[in-house]
């Protein structure tokens, strides 16, 4: 296949692209800077611009672009950047794919577009499948708008799957920030620790994306392991993997002072999300044990 990838330098994209190439696919990497290699192509999602004709013979787009949600405190400017970066990128690739489909309706195309389990809001201990309704907080609103931006592709008859990803366990990302604290013995559960953390190994994240390139799946897909855990369970597992105690508790009020709105929506809230659509399609996870996933991520550092 000829596959275009946005966000190819991120945590997921940087692991995905080499595997796609190894699978024999031709990969086009969309970048916002001056291209450095033959497989890179500059685009300007904020202005809804792609190189003319770039998608004419593209079979698939994996859209992973977006400003990091927890990279900065949630000021009004950062929240706008989180929203607009996702909507602009998704709208740009969706419209370009729709135009390509209109010009060449005989080619089958697919759009795999990132989203997040934050779509559901805080769901407590209720098991959450893809049919669950959207939440009402900022992250949920972002995910709703993010997924809605795929409408041009959907309306053009393109198969679209929105990837509601959980916490990806890899050396970088959130785990990369937590592990050093736990190694110093200052890690601990957040608030009461009862909020669920739907996790997925990096290996399964990228393998699921590869699977969905050809599996006949449309609509929302939870990219989470079938064994979500509470924050308290996650804390205990991470402490065990790094061989340090985790006796501390970070009070919710302290988190709110430090993190502001993100504490309530992103750190103290959770989703007991399960991969119903992915498993129904026949995907089999390679890592379902949390400690094994944490050990795997830790060993790759």
Strand/helix succession: EHEEEHEEHHEEHEEEHEEHEHHEHH
Helix percentage range: 25-40%
Rounded to the nearest angstrom, the radius of gyration is 19 Å
Largest sheet: 7 strands, parallel
Per DSSP, the total helix count is 11
**Which structural class fits the helix and strand makeup?**
alpha/beta
Number of strands: 15
Morphology call: globular
Span between N and C termini?
Answer: 32 Å
Unreliable runs: none
The overall average pLDDT, rounded, is 94
Strand order of the largest sheet: 3-2-1-4-5-7-12
Beta-strand percentage?
A: 15-25%
Q: Would you give an account of this structure?
A:
This protein is α/β, with parallel strands linked by helices and 301 residues long. 40% of the residues lie in helices and 19% in strands. The strands form 5 sheets. The protein has a 7-stranded parallel sheet with strand order 3-2-1-4-5-7-12, sandwiched between helices. Helix 2 (76-103) links the parallel strand 4 and strand 5. Helix 1 (11-22) packs across helix 6 (202-212), helix 2 (76-103) packs parallel to helix 3 (138-148) and helix 7 packs across helix 11. The longest helix is centred in the N-terminal third of the chain and has 28 residues, at 76-103. It is globular.
